[in-house]
Amino acid sequence: MKKITQLRSSLCTLLITLTMGMTLTAECHAERLKDLAGIQGVRQNQLLGYGLVVGLDGSGDQTTQTPFTVQSIVSMLQQMGVTLPVGTSLQLKNVAAVMVTTSLPPFAQPGQALDVTVSSMGNAKSLRGGTLLMTPLKGADNQIYAMAQGNVLVGGVGASANGSKAQVNHLSVGRISSGATVERAVPSSVGQGNTIQLELNTSDFSTASRVVDAINRRFGPETAAALDGRAIQVKAPVSADQRVSFLGALESLDVTPAQTVAKVILNARTGSIVMNQAVTLDSCAVAHGNLSVVINTDNAITQPNALAGGQTAATANSGISITKDAGQLMMLKAGTSLADVVKALNAIGATPQDLLAILQAIKASGALRAELEII
């Protein structure tokens, strides 16, 4: 067990080091505008419905614990003209109450097919082999936008040997490919007016300014104007065909986004640490249990020979000292970067809780020049 733990720690350290190396050395490259921003009004809409899955092989809801399944069956039979005698007790082992979910894509038209996800909301053991009855799917405005029906497919792998069984899948959730049909289109404002509005995925004034410059260089001056750090107003053709061609060319523009704010993300459960760019540290000292972290800068003066033509210069050598149990274990003379600190702490077996406490202390002291986000 100890060897497995050490191997796991070594692998985590290697992954963290490789991730930091790739992240810190990456340069900003041009990206397509469609990857940086979206068009206002072009979005998905979530749909939700309540339905019944029938035809199960005795793996449905236990009606004594899920009365809503019985109520749904009684209501459905009444709509079909079947009236049950008063006091009838139904034992519906082959029926399960489910929630049906999907997303209505932008510009969806009546007749278009959608994939749906069927999830048990009772205590059914399995939805395998069942059939979803016609289920209306509603949007946030409580209007019906699609109808779902079809055979539920539950994927997975089952195996049995010598009387023992193994099941590797989730039996209470299934999918129906092309199981819903769009009945109503969502009105779109993209084809109206003589302007459209771009919305950056992340608010950034520098990136918004660069997008405006790229659009104006491509389509002419005063074509685009930034409204704030996220929204950009763009003049577009009035004709629908010309507007589609214009938006296609607009989305294909290459824009180099501005460098985002320095951020360190720490997963407190797994100990994973990710940085989006080079994160620097100022001089500080942290003591945590039997661990001590000291970051300092040693100033050195370099003076050339009297006969040489050079100049006297002052340099700064940054050092990171990691000690444990009052004994020095590692001294790094590279730049004072958080990557070196994390690597050193992992080398001496610091736990995720140790990393969390140390980084929080460095951030609180003002020595960490980045945002610290803990997830």
Automatic annotation (TrEMBL):
Highest taxon of source: Bacteria
InterPro entries: Flag_FlgI
Location relative to the cell: Bacterial flagellum basal body
Primary location recorded for the protein, binned into one broad class: other
Keywords for the protein's UniProt record, in alphabetical order: Bacterial flagellum, Cell projection, Cilium, Flagellum, Signal
One matching Pfam family: FlgI
Keyword NAD listed: no
UniProt keyword annotation of Signal present: yes
Signal sequence coordinates: 1-30
Assembly: The basal body constitutes a major portion of the flagellar organelle and consists of four rings (L,P,S, and M) mounted on a central rod.
Family per similarity comment: Belongs to the FlgI family.
Protein function: Assembles around the rod to form the L-ring and probably protects the motor/basal body from shearing forces during rotation.
Protein name, UniProt field: Flagellar P-ring protein
Natural source organism: Undibacterium rivi
Phylogenetic placement of the source organism: Bacteria, Pseudomonadati, Pseudomonadota, Betaproteobacteria, Burkholderiales
